[in-house]
Amino acid sequence: MRTRNRMLLLLIALVGFTHPRVAAAQHPPELVREMWSAEWITSPDAPQRDQSVLHFRKVIELAQKPQHFLVHVSADNQFLFEVNQERVGSGPSRSDLAHWRFETYDIAPFLHPGRNVLAATVWNFGVLTALAQISDRTAFVLHGDGEAERPADTDQTWEVEEEKGVRVLPTPDAVRGQYYVAEPAEQVDGTVFDWNWNTADRSGRWKTAQTLGRATPMGAVLQENNWRLMPDPLPAMQMMLSSAGHVVRSSGIEVDSGFPESAFTVPAHSKATVLIDNAHLTTAYPELTVSNGRGATTRLSYAEALIDDKGEKGNRNEIVGKHLQGIFDEFIADGNADRIFMPLGWKTWRYLQLDIETTDQPLTIEKLRTWFTAYPFEERGKFESDDDSLKPIWEIGWHTARLDAHDTYMDTPYYERMQYIGDTRIQALLSYTVGGDDRLARQAVQAFNDSRIPDGLTWSRYPTSMRQIIPTFSLLWVGMVHDFWMYRSDPDFVRAQLPGTRSVLDWFLERQRSDGLLSKIPLWPFVDWGSDFEFGMPPQDNDGGSSPITLQFVESLRYAAEMESALGDRNRAGLYRSAAERASQAVYKLCWNSQYGLLADTPAQKHYSQHANILGVWLNVIPSKRHRDVLTNILSSSDTGYAANGPLPPLTQATYYFRFYLARALDHAGMGDQYLRLLGPWQKMVSLGLTTWAEKPDPTRSDSHAWSAHPNYDFLTIVAGIRPATPAFATVLLAPHLGSLKHVSAVVPHPKGMIEVEYTVEHSSVKAVINLPAGVAGALLWDGKTSTLHEGKQELQLRLGSTARRNASTRGN
């Protein structure tokens, strides 16, 4: 590798980079209580709140190679940190100014006796910065952990230069119109770029850094700037070399069959286009190596799918008659050999297109490599069955969850990259049950608590530089806290959230009408992208009274009452139960239509949705004797508009997202054996060549939305039936619903080990083999009967009831 020819994010010479990062839990308490000796630094003359890319560096002398050398690093907006031309890490994880993250690295492996160069690139894209990024001004800080590391501290002994070779370009109108607020298009002009930025070379535009005051950890009393620093609680993001795909189309040049690994040359004064299919969606850094061709421009454009002339995606595997439209990056070659371009921000794509235009010299495209990046989840949960059609649903679901999790959860890794509560609740449940990892979920729960406004509500998404309030998402955040409480034993963390859940519920309690329903909810009370919900909002009468919104209020009241009874204020728990009961009775009394056997969306009974009836069943607001009829009616209406008892009114249908709650209602109504019949939309997406789950049915903006990945959770909790019976997963309930399946095996990670189950249909019985971790007991619920389970391995023979026998004899549709 030619280190002097590396682009500013030439990352890693290893497959699967191992970070020299120190876990947040190892930080001593005094590190977040006392003012640091290091100072925040910036450029004395570059823009501090507008577009700028800065390089910082310092040379330190060491008599010998140290055994350890700990440094704490942060920046606004983002940094790339190198030691002796080797990449150490990047960050910080996104948060807000009151909880600004720092990373800790042991850089001893990168050091040697004599002169050592510490270098960092820091960038701020001003008004074009991704909307998930909060910022004060462009700055960098590095703090040595002890006296031995003190020479590394940032102060006026550091140098800084403004990089003039990097700038951002406007987002194309067609992309911006899809609400694109993620990383902007970057252009790197290699003829201007300082290729020696991470060395001790004296050429360039280096100046003495300007200081902005000492760095302030969260617990410190004094503060000299706006960043209150705290250790990053997350592990380093994964960086792994992966396949760059294969060429599926080219024009203007004949591309060697070995590309992207082997080279091709574009003649002088020529244009060429190369389209590469990665075969599946990815989140990654592209790494392009070129030689010669001074002044040649290579544009890398990224898209989730190709579109036809009507703007339609269709089958994602098809390319004939389709073209690429998407965000892009550009690299202008300087004419030297083996120049490597990698954008500062990672991108999302299945299809990547190179558009090359040369000037007076031919340009050689040496190779294209891809560095996959995401939160380092492991697939610890497992699900297998005798129905092969479920395998791609599981695989695509987990792949979707992975791409939508980085330093925060994300609604879509292509367009927004923002952590919304509605999406995040489902993603966190996947993290517990498949990943067995609660760190990202814990970060999200706390972030939403930190986002609360004086009125009491949370922001709908956080972190972000643009405030957005969805009151119904604040209710779902209460559910997120409850989910964490059920899956993890950390009562102190849950107890710390209760002041926040109280402020949210107080806001709604003030708006509960005398009849029990909620009055008209302001701002954006989003529920689902229903086809006739205005901007995702169910109808409200003039004075409110929306049953879907009131029912979400009921759900959060019940969750909060349980947590308050166990961990908080029992008087509040009683208040919540009373309010929930009044709301439940009001919904049924005022919105139940006996002619249709359905809940209307408001007391006016002019509009009906699946949503109100899903929640009405799940929360027992509709009497249990009516559950099956209601669910049968709303499911049959999806296709025919008819129920068993006659025609139904038009019903707003639940989209992929809200079918998560439909699955909960089906399970609650004792109809879990019909769950597999809900998978038609996912099977259709498989047939259309999607490799991640879409935001909603075509035409859809986003091809990757983790709120649609809940079948993985359903397979484990409904089909295999593995779920917490009591808070902290202290005991386990197994309530399987095999439907038409004859064999199911599943694994769910538990804080004390792995829960393993296997069910095999044998004529008129089911053989159940169950293995629980040490110290974990529970119960198996089957055919209305409960069997006690103990730790370790056990085998039960279960009688196959008449309904189960019918299900086992035929596959669901």
What does this structure look like?
The protein is globular. It has 813 residues and is of the alpha+beta class. Helix 4 packs antiparallel against helix 5, helix 5 runs antiparallel to helix 6 and helix 9 packs across helix 11. Strands 10, 11, 16, 17, 18, 19, 20, 21, 22, 23 and 24 form an eleven-stranded mixed β-sheet that branches. It has a six-stranded antiparallel β-sheet with strand order 5-4-7-2-9-12, with no helix packed on it. Strands 8-3-6-15-14 form a five-stranded mixed β-sheet, with no helix packed on it. The N terminus and C terminus are likely disordered.
- Report the C-alpha radius of gyration, rounded: 28 Å
CATH topology description of the domain at 20-163 and 205-232: Jelly Rolls
Largest sheet: 11 strands, mixed
CATH superfamily annotation of the domain at 20-163 and 205-232: Galactose-binding domain-like
Strand content: 25-35%
Short description:
Among the domains are: 20-163 and 205-232, Sandwich (Jelly Rolls); 239-374, Galactose-binding domain-like (Jelly Rolls). The chain is built from 14 helices and 39 strands. Helix 7 (547-567) packs antiparallel against helix 8 (570-591).
